């Protein structure tokens, strides 16, 4: 079957992790452009509030309270889309969580829980999407990876591992579907650091509150990339030139990047603020106080646009040139910092 993706106003779109950050931003943006939505998250009250907000603006919305790490919950998401709208055109596997701390300090239970959400949530969602979409006209499966899909970082080791696993699964699924000629586009989105509730939601084993290393980008840039991939087949998309540069550096000079990250990332991922006593996170259950917020409000500069991402969504040749330029820039920057 030929691969033809519908225009957004004609689409039914599933978004997991829809009540904060990238998922929330994407849901609001997709609704504004006329998509019909199936929104899923663990926070049922926040889902209801979001659905009410979007319906007041004229959007058609179905909601499913679900944990993406539970296959039965993900099956209910797919069933809700079919029962309410008759089909699903795009499935966005966005739900995710992190843990900050040294790998040896983190409990096995927490390691497993992170993988249950970040990796198995994507597996569950992707396979459910294939089942629901392959014989109903096809569409787009969009998985949210990370700049650490290509390059691991210290203090978020298991998060990095889960995003590496997401990349491998996504690439394998894409090849298998292409081999059989299935009418499905499979895209991996790889954002750089994004100003969302990511650090607030993360479990923290450090004595300081988590922080994200610059450059930091706005969640709207990720949402724009997701909505682009929903309408235009893309293999993968970097969000932020910083993400592309890190990926290029990982390929071209991995050992230099080791030295650079060892010298910078331990400091950059620790804020000056001591970890709060009784700090809450969202590893096992949502924190109602932090729902329905697109951004944390980073003290660092947040880039509201990305020339690299905008260009890569429009021109493959320009994207290639920018990746090469980014790699050279990364090499120059790293060499200067290491020389200091």
What's the topology here?
Blueprint (H helix, E strand, L loop, with lengths): L11 E5 L4 H12 L3 E6 L2 H13 L4 E5 L5 H15 L4 E4 L5 E2 L7 H11 L1 H14 L5 E6 L12 H23 L4 E8 L1 E2 L3 H4 L1 E2 L3 E3 L5 E2 L1 H13 L4 E4 L1 H12 L1 H15 L1 E5 L27 E2 L3 H6 L3 H24 L1
Helix pairs in contact: 1-8, 3-5, 4-6, 9-10, 9-12, 10-12
The Rg value, from CA coordinates, equals: 19 Å
Instruction: Write out the strand line-up for the largest beta sheet, numbering strands in chain order.
Output: 3-2-1-4-6-7-12
Reported CATH architecture = 3-Layer(aba) Sandwich
Q: Tell me the domain tally.
A: 1
Structure description:
By secondary structure, the chain is an alpha/beta fold. The chain has one domain (9-339): NAD(P)-binding Rossmann-like Domain (Rossmann fold), CATH 3.40.50.720. It has helices spanning 21-32, 44-56, 71-85, 108-118, 120-133, 157-179, 198-201, 219-231, 241-252, 254-268, 307-312, 316-339, and strands at residues 12-16, 36-41, 61-65, 90-93, 99-100, 139-144, 184-191, 193-194, 203-204, 208-210, 216-217, 236-239, 270-274, 302-303. Strands 3-2-1-4-6-7-12 form a 7-stranded parallel sheet, sandwiched between helices. A 3-stranded parallel sheet has the order 8-11-14. Strand 1, helix 1 (21-32) and strand 2 (36-41) form a beta-alpha-beta unit. Helix 4 packs parallel to helix 6 and helix 9 (241-252) packs across helix 10 (254-268). The longest helix has 24 residues, at 316-339. It is globular and about 50 Å long. It starts with 11 loop residues before the first strand and ends with a helix. Mean pLDDT is 93; it is low at 330-340.
């Amino acid at each position: 079957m030929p691969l033809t993706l519908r225009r957004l106003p004609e689409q039914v779109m599933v978004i997991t992790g829809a009540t904060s950050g990238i998922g929330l931003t994407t849901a609001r943006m997709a609704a504004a452009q006329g998509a019909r939505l199936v929104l899923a998250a663990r926070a049922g009250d926040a889902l209801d509030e979001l659905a009410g907000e979007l319906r007041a603006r004229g959007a058609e919305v179905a909601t499913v309270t679900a944990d993406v790490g539970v296959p039965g919950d993900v099956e209910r998401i797919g069933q809700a889309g079919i029962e309410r709208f008759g089909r699903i055109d795009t499935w966005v596997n966005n739900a995710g969580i992190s843990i900050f701390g040294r790998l040896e300090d983190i409990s096995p239970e927490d390691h497993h829980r992170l993988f249950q959400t970040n990796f198995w949530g994507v597996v569950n969602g992707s396979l459910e999407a294939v089942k629901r979409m392959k014989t109903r006209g096809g569409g787009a499966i969009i998985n949210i990876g990370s700049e650490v899909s290509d390059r691991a970082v210290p203090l978020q080791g298991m998060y990095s591992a889960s995003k590496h696993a997401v990349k491998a699964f996504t690439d394998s699924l894409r090849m298998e579907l292409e081999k059989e000629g299935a009418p499905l586009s499979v895209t991996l989105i790889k954002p750089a650091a994004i100003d969302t509730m990511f650090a607030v939601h993360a479990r923290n084993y450090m004595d300081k509150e988590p922080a994200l290393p610059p450059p930091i980008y706005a969640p709207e840039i990720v949402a724009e990339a997701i909505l682009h991939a929903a309408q235009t087949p893309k293999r993968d998309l970097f969000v932020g030139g910083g993400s592309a540069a890190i990926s290029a550096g990982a390929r071209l000079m991995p050992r230099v990047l080791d030295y650079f990250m060892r010298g910078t990332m331990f400091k950059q991922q620790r804020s000056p603020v001591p970890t709060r006593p009784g700090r809450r996170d969202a590893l096992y259950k949502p924190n109602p106080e932090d729902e329905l917020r697109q951004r944390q409000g980073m003290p660092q500069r947040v880039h509201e646009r990305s020339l690299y991402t905008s260009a890569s969504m429009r021109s493959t040749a320009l994207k290639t040139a920018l990746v090469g330029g980014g790699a050279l820039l990364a090499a120059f920057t790293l060499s200067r910092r290491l020389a200091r």
